[in-house]
Amino acid sequence: MPRALRPRRPKAANASAAFARAIEMGRAGRLIAGAIAGGMALGLALLAALGPPAPPASVPPQIFAADARPGLGVTLRRCRTVTVADDACEAAWEAKRRHFFGQERRAR
Questions:
Q1: Helix, strand, or coil (residue 29)
Q2: Cα 85 from chain centroid?
Q3: How far is the CA of 101 from the CAs of 7, 79, 94, 107, in angstroms?
Q4: Are the C-beta atoms of residues 37 and 31 closer than 8 Å to each other?
Q5: Half-sphere exposure for 43 (CA within 13 Å, toward CB)
Q6: What would the pLDDT profile of 69-84 be if each residue is shown by its tens digit?
Protein backbone atom coordinates (compact mmCIF):
# COMPACT_ATOMS: atom_id res chain seq x y z
CA MET A 1 0.00 0.00 0.00
CA PRO A 2 1.44 3.37 -0.86
CA ARG A 3 2.35 5.66 1.96
CA ALA A 4 -0.20 8.29 1.07
CA LEU A 5 -3.10 5.83 1.31
CA ARG A 6 -2.05 4.32 4.68
CA PRO A 7 -4.13 5.54 7.62
CA ARG A 8 -2.17 7.70 10.01
CA ARG A 9 -1.54 6.46 13.50
CA PRO A 10 -2.43 8.83 16.29
CA LYS A 11 0.48 10.47 18.06
CA ALA A 12 1.29 9.46 21.59
CA ALA A 13 -0.53 11.49 24.19
CA ASN A 14 2.55 11.79 26.38
CA ALA A 15 6.17 10.77 26.56
CA SER A 16 5.55 7.69 28.72
CA ALA A 17 3.20 6.17 26.12
CA ALA A 18 5.83 6.61 23.45
CA PHE A 19 8.47 5.10 25.74
CA ALA A 20 6.26 2.11 26.58
CA ARG A 21 5.74 1.40 22.89
CA ALA A 22 9.50 1.66 22.29
CA ILE A 23 10.36 -0.97 24.93
CA GLU A 24 7.55 -3.39 24.12
CA MET A 25 8.86 -6.93 24.27
CA GLY A 26 7.95 -9.61 21.85
CA ARG A 27 7.66 -13.29 22.63
CA ALA A 28 11.38 -13.91 22.14
CA GLY A 29 12.28 -11.02 24.45
CA ARG A 30 10.07 -12.41 27.21
CA LEU A 31 11.60 -15.85 26.81
CA ILE A 32 15.10 -14.42 27.06
CA ALA A 33 14.19 -12.37 30.14
CA GLY A 34 12.62 -15.44 31.77
CA ALA A 35 15.68 -17.55 30.97
CA ILE A 36 17.98 -14.94 32.51
CA ALA A 37 15.85 -14.67 35.66
CA GLY A 38 15.64 -18.45 35.96
CA GLY A 39 19.39 -18.83 35.47
CA MET A 40 20.08 -16.27 38.17
CA ALA A 41 17.69 -18.02 40.57
CA LEU A 42 19.32 -21.38 39.86
CA GLY A 43 22.79 -19.90 40.37
CA LEU A 44 21.82 -18.38 43.71
CA ALA A 45 20.26 -21.68 44.82
CA LEU A 46 23.46 -23.53 43.93
CA LEU A 47 25.59 -21.00 45.80
CA ALA A 48 23.42 -21.36 48.88
CA ALA A 49 23.45 -25.16 48.71
CA LEU A 50 27.18 -25.52 48.08
CA GLY A 51 28.35 -22.80 50.48
CA PRO A 52 30.13 -23.62 53.73
CA PRO A 53 27.82 -25.03 56.41
CA ALA A 54 26.89 -22.87 59.35
CA PRO A 55 28.80 -23.63 62.54
CA PRO A 56 26.78 -25.75 64.98
CA ALA A 57 25.17 -23.81 67.79
CA SER A 58 26.68 -24.63 71.13
CA VAL A 59 24.20 -25.78 73.72
CA PRO A 60 24.86 -24.46 77.21
CA PRO A 61 25.11 -27.17 79.83
CA GLN A 62 21.98 -27.64 81.90
CA ILE A 63 22.31 -27.18 85.62
CA PHE A 64 19.65 -28.91 87.61
CA ALA A 65 18.64 -27.97 91.11
CA ALA A 66 20.26 -31.12 92.46
CA ASP A 67 23.58 -30.12 90.87
CA ALA A 68 23.62 -26.68 92.47
CA ARG A 69 24.42 -27.95 95.95
CA PRO A 70 23.98 -31.24 97.71
CA GLY A 71 20.65 -31.25 99.51
CA LEU A 72 19.44 -28.09 97.77
CA GLY A 73 17.52 -30.10 95.15
CA VAL A 74 15.45 -31.84 97.82
CA THR A 75 14.66 -28.53 99.47
CA LEU A 76 13.70 -26.89 96.18
CA ARG A 77 11.47 -29.83 95.24
CA ARG A 78 9.69 -29.50 98.58
CA CYS A 79 9.42 -25.72 98.22
CA ARG A 80 7.64 -25.92 94.86
CA THR A 81 4.41 -26.85 96.59
CA VAL A 82 4.71 -24.60 99.65
CA THR A 83 2.15 -21.78 99.64
CA VAL A 84 3.09 -19.98 102.85
CA ALA A 85 6.26 -18.04 103.56
CA ASP A 86 9.05 -20.36 104.66
CA ASP A 87 12.50 -19.06 105.58
CA ALA A 88 14.24 -22.26 104.46
CA CYS A 89 12.52 -22.12 101.06
CA GLU A 90 13.34 -18.45 100.55
CA ALA A 91 17.00 -19.12 101.39
CA ALA A 92 17.08 -22.09 99.00
CA TRP A 93 15.54 -20.09 96.14
CA GLU A 94 17.93 -17.20 96.80
CA ALA A 95 20.89 -19.61 96.69
CA LYS A 96 19.57 -21.05 93.42
CA ARG A 97 19.20 -17.53 91.94
CA ARG A 98 22.76 -16.61 92.93
CA HIS A 99 24.05 -19.86 91.45
CA PHE A 100 22.06 -19.30 88.22
CA PHE A 101 23.31 -15.75 87.70
CA GLY A 102 26.89 -16.68 88.63
CA GLN A 103 27.06 -14.38 91.61
CA GLU A 104 28.44 -17.15 93.84
CA ARG A 105 31.76 -17.13 91.99
CA ARG A 106 32.16 -13.36 92.30
CA ALA A 107 31.34 -13.34 96.02
CA ARG A 108 34.04 -15.88 96.89
A1: helix
A2: 44
A3: 87, 20, 11, 12
A4: no
A5: 6
A6: 556 777 888 888 888 8
What pTM does this model have?
0.32
Is there a contact between 68 and 51 (Cβ–Cβ < 8 Å)?
no
Mean local confidence (pLDDT), 8-23: 63
pLDDT digits (tens, 9 = 90+) for 52-108: 777 777 766 665 554 555 567 778 888 888 888 888 888 888 888 888 888 765 554
CA angle 91, 96, 99 (to 5 degrees): 125
If we measure between CA atoms, which residue out of 55, 57, 64, 68 comes closest to residue 99? Answer: 68
What count of other Cβ atoms lies within 10 Å of the Cβ of residue 42?
10
For 67-103, the DSSP string reads HHSTTHHHHHHHHTS--S--HHHHHHHHHHHHHHHTH
In angstroms, rounded to a whole number, what is the distance separating the alpha carbons of residues 32 and 20?
Answer: 19
